[in-house]
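Holo model, NAP. Inputs:
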Amino acid sequence: MTAGDVTADGRARVLVDGNEIPLLGFGVWQVRDGRGCEDAVRWALQAGYRHIDTAQAYGNEESVGRALRDSGVRRDDVFITTKFYPRRKDPVAQAQRSLQRLGVDFVDLYIIHWPAGGPTWAWDGMQRAHERGHARSIGVSNYSVAELDELLAVADTPPAVNQVQFSPFEYRRGLLDACEERQVAVEAYSPLGTGRHLGDRAVGEIADRLGRTPAQVLLRWCLQRNLVVLPKSTHQERIEENAQVFDFTLADEDMAALDALDRTAGSDQARERKWW
Ligand SMILES: NC(=O)c1ccc[n+]([C@@H]2O[C@H](COP(=O)([O-])OP(=O)(O)OC[C@H]3O[C@@H](n4cnc5c(N)ncnc54)[C@H](OP(=O)(O)O)[C@@H]3O)[C@@H](O)[C@H]2O)c1
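Output:
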C-alpha cells in the first residue's frame, strides 16, 4: 500500500508516512466539555466511528479522553487528532498538555490549527513532537497551496494532512489537486456547512431520489472526492445517520450536479474569510 491508497475495507486511507487514517471522523468543535461531549463521543464510538477530531482550542479534550476510556473500545483502535493552538509558542509543550488532558500516551495526528504568524515557524516544534512520539503523524489545517509549498520547502518531515473547509459548496479543486500531487491527504471540515448546506434544494432532491438524507449525500460526496470527512453532531440519531455512508454510491451525474454547487470557483485557497 502506498500513500493515497484506500484500505481493502474501504474505510481508511494510507498517509505519506505509512499510517492509516479512517475516512470517517467525528468532529467535536462547539461541543462543550462535560457530559454532552462524553455522550456524543460515546455514541460515535458505538455507531462505529474510529476517528475523533478535537483541538486544544475546543476545550473538550478531557471529555474526549474520558469517553474513549469508558467506551470499552481499545485505544489502539481509535484514531485521535488534536490541533496545536497557534497562539501558543511551543507545540511540544502543548502536545504534552493535550496528552495529559486526553489521558493517552500519543495522538495519532497533531496538526497546526491555522497558519497564525506564517506557515513555517511552528513546524520545528511539530517535528519534535513527532520525534518524541507524542504524535504518530503531523500535519496542518487551513493552509492554502502557497502556504503548503512554503512549508514543504523547509520541512524534514512533510505534513501528512491538510484539514480544510470542504463540501460541494466549497469544492476547492485547486487546493485538493495540489494536495494530492504533494501526497498531502485533505480532510474535509464543516462538510455539512456547520448545518447550513443541509437545506439546499439540489442536495435534498438527490437525497429524496436515493432514499437517503441530505447529510448522507454531502458526506458521501466527500468520500467519493477522496477526502477524509469530519461531521459533527450532538444528537445520537444524527451521529448514527452520518455513519451510514459506506453502503451507497453517488452516480457520476449526481456527483457532477453537486460539484456545480461550488462557490469558490475551484479555489486553491483554504478560506475566503480568515479569522487570523
Ligand atoms: N480545522 C478547523 O479550523 C476546523 C474548523 C471547523 C470545523 N472543524 C472540524 O470539523 C468538524 C465538523 O464541522 P462543523 O462542526 O463546522 O459542522 P458540520 O459537521 O458541517 O455540521 C454540524 C451541524 O450540522 C448539524 N447536523 C449534523 N448532522 C446532522 C444531520 N444528520 N441532520 C441534521 N443536522 C445535522 C449539527 O447539529 P447538532 O450538533 O445539533 O446535531 C451541527 O449544527 C468540527 O466539529 C471540527 O472537528 C475544523
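The first helix runs from residue 35 to 46. Strands lie at 12-14, 20-22, 26-27, 51-53, 79-84, 107-112, 135-141, 161-165, 185-189, 228-229.
Archived with the compound record.
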